[in-house]
Design brief:
It holds the Pfam family Band_7. The chain is α+β, with helices and mostly antiparallel strands. The protein is built from nine helices and ten strands. Helix 4 crosses helix 6. The termini are far apart. The C terminus is likely disordered.
Length: 321
Amino acid sequence: MENIQEQKFKFNQINLLKKTNPKTVVALIIFAVVTATVISRIVKIIPVGYVGLQEVNGLATPKSLKPGINFVNPFSEVTVISTRLQDVKQKIETTSQEGLKFEVEVSLQYQVNPDKVFSVYEKVGFDNDEILISRYRSLVREITALYPLQEIISQKRREVSSQLQERLQENLSPLGYTVEEALIREIFLPDDIQQAFNQKIKIQQENEQMNFELEKTRQQAQKQKIEAQGEAEAQKIKAESEAQAKLVKAKADAESQKLLSRDLSPSILQLRAIEATEKIGTSPNAKIYMGLGNSSSGNITPLLFSDLLNPNQTQKTANSP
């Protein structure tokens, strides 16, 4: 069934072509070709990372074409320019401040400023590699000549790269370029200079090691000195503390003796004698006691009865101070 329908459809097409005027077919073909040609001339698609520049009769228009679909003059020629980051590596022979020759491998990363495409075209054109490289080489030689070789290969290497990038930006920005990075990647020295630098570095390292050892010894001596001073100070503090403690103790003893002397006054002694007599009087073996002394002064001393047998001795004792 399907084969019959297909054959019928083809038959109808053949009959339609036979009935169609050949001039009409030719006209349609010409119209399609002209339309496609016109569209291709007035519509330009610019890919991402590029811009376009129109030229009419050899003259470029200042306005650039952005990425995407653009309608242009059908009689113009459109040149597509990359605005992506470009990386250029160069090995350049140069000299140092002392006039020593050596080689450096440098890299430059740059791109065309999309807003300054017309300026690039107007000033350097699009075959600009030789111009960029020529300026790049010239600036490298100019900057390395400002520094001693020792500094270029050591502590000033980053500074040299920074100077190179700044100078390139100053030189290329007016032309329509943006410099992203300029680096010194490698430094190649002649064999004799390399050996001399190696020997110099070796001596410097030995001197640094010696200085380190000397500083270490000095610090150890300083530490021992501080420890000795600390020990002496500790001994001094200890001696002062002990002397202070002895002084405090001596004052305390003196105060104690003073208080004790005050407590042993005649009236206190008389009171203690009376208290002792009262205790003896309560004892089963009690003896008769009598108090003798100077009543006016209050010095009355209790006496045992046996002491009355020797009144001279008792009187002497009672009158004694």
